[in-house]
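Journal club prep, notes for RB
We'll compare a predicted complex against what the paper describes. Inputs for the ISJ case:
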Amino acid sequence: ELSAHSGDRYSLDSVREALVKQEDTIVYGLIERTKFPSNSHTYAENYIEIPGFCGSLVEFVVKNTEALQAQAGRYQSPEENPFFPENLPPPIVPSYPFTQILHPGAASLNINKSIWKMYFQELLPLLVTSGDDGNYAQTAASDLSLLQAISRRIHYGKFVAEVKFRESPQDYEPLIRAQDREGLMKLLTFESVEEMVRKRVEKKAMVFGQEVSLNRVDDTNVKHKFDPSVASRLYQKWVIPLTKEVQVQYLLRRLD
Ligand SMILES: C=C(O[C@@H]1C=C(C(=O)O)C=C[C@H]1O)C(=O)O
């Protein structure tokens, strides 16, 4: 059972700490993806011809990788959500006793379709330069690991919401009973935390993405692997709002 003291894996502080660590993974993922140009063949519907498969190369890579990772047990963790949950094979590994802190409704909360759309339609065009270097499989693999990092961060909203609910059920319950989306959104929002997150992510993008040179004379024209404002825009426009959307959707079902 969960209690609200700090040091607990599921206190609001420790849940926020987990989100801070996930920022690193996302920033590294952005850096890794920028090593390749746009490589548009990776995303074209008619580039590959495989009997019985209809879709782009990135879909082919993601669906098959997810099937393999499902067998290896990835989606037994309540922190992981597949992009293509339809027809995943069962795990071949024994199950691990993950702490069950979430309401059972959490299992069916998956907004990866929106994340997928945002990633390919909005984020990638901001992030990569146009070009084609033929490394489509590697490009798809780096898309997948970045997508997984972003998805894990956004769906972590389930844990954030559960902890917030347990810390003040008296505030949340009436709003949930009234199915008051807006009221819930207001109650779970902390503007000052969001601002800190955005600033820290931009700083991480700046620091982790810095070109390291041994013979630099002055630090004024340090080169960056990608535009750090892309990272803060990613958070501001999509990651934070979608994390809050997950929190609201989770809470709306919390008393079912
Ligand atoms: C994740 C939280 O909930 C909301 C969403 C945030 C985010 O996605 O970074 C930050 C603050 C809150 O408005 C939180 O309170 O930490």
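Talking point for the session: Residues 228-252 form the longest helix (25 residues).
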